[in-house]
Write a structure and sequence with these properties.
It is a single chain. By secondary structure, this protein is α+β, with helices and mostly antiparallel strands. The protein has two domains: 64 residues, Winged helix-like DNA-binding domain superfamily/Winged helix DNA-binding domain (Arc Repressor Mutant, subunit A), CATH 1.10.10; 159 residues, Chorismate lyase-like (Chorismate lyase, 3-Layer(aba) Sandwich), CATH 3.40.1410.10. Helix content is 28%, strand content 34%. The chain is built from eight helices and ten strands. The strands form three sheets. It has a six-stranded antiparallel sheet with strand order 4-5-6-9-8-7. The protein has a two-stranded antiparallel ribbon with strand order 1-2. Strands 3-10 form a two-stranded parallel sheet. Strand 1 and strand 2 form a beta hairpin. It is elongated and about 65 Å long. It starts with 6 loop residues before the first helix and ends in a 12-residue tail after the last strand. InterPro entries: Bact_HTH_transcr_reg (IPR050679), Chorismate_lyase_/UTRA_dom_sf (IPR028978), Tscrpt_reg_HTH_GntR (IPR000524), UTRA (IPR011663), WH-like_DNA-bd_sf (IPR036388), WH_DNA-bd_sf (IPR036390). One of its GO terms (biological process) is negative regulation of DNA-templated transcription. This is GntR family transcriptional regulator. GO terms for molecular function: DNA binding; DNA-binding transcription factor activity. It comes from Gracilibacillus halotolerans.
Length: 245
Amino acid sequence: MKKNQSLHAHIKNELLSRIKSNQYKKGEKIPTELELCEQFNVSRTTVRAALNQLTLEGYLERVQGRGTFVADKKINQTLTQTVKRYVDQIEVQGKTAEIILVNLSVIPATEIIQKHLDVALNDPIQRIERIRKANNAPTQYEISYIPWKIAPGINQLHAETSLYQSLEKDYNVFLKKTTEFVEIVLADETTSDYLGCELGSPCFYIETIAEDKDGEKIEYSQSYFRGDRTNFVIERYYPGNSNEN
């Protein structure tokens, strides 16, 4: 155990290592709290704290009356330099992807939308609420805002396939750049309802501003991801062979 590391953190890291190394396989029941207490020579309170944290982070699933099991692997999504659709990213991981339209409406631009999309106040904006699922389990709740002048008349088919591909194919609008802001938030009533998680559960929150090839802002979105079902891959490319950090 590392110096200054708490007992429950040490146990959590050891169990996580067993999960990631496939010593504890997906769907497998792990040792009971009592068995873990004996293995690590610690109290039940310490073991329970480690298990609670791994459950909250989505690595374990506790089933009432049956025990604690290794949860399904988290969904990987790439944030940088990818043109792959959500469906493609999920299906390559052996899962079935689904995008469900919750609501599609036209609203007047608010001050916040005006700021992010460079539109005039009260300009018509298409507000698109969607839920993304993997193997029928919700992973993401998203609200997208697209100016009417950019792509008038977005419909359910556009929303439930790929918005960006629809913009290119049907509106001749080509995505060139996205800027993303990432933070951790706690699920409110709406988010917890759509994502099927407990109120106050930790979620990744990403705000995205998309621009076309001419630098015009074409979309502003707010996305909430279940923290226990999602992780992200970030790739960085560096020019040349410089050794500078």
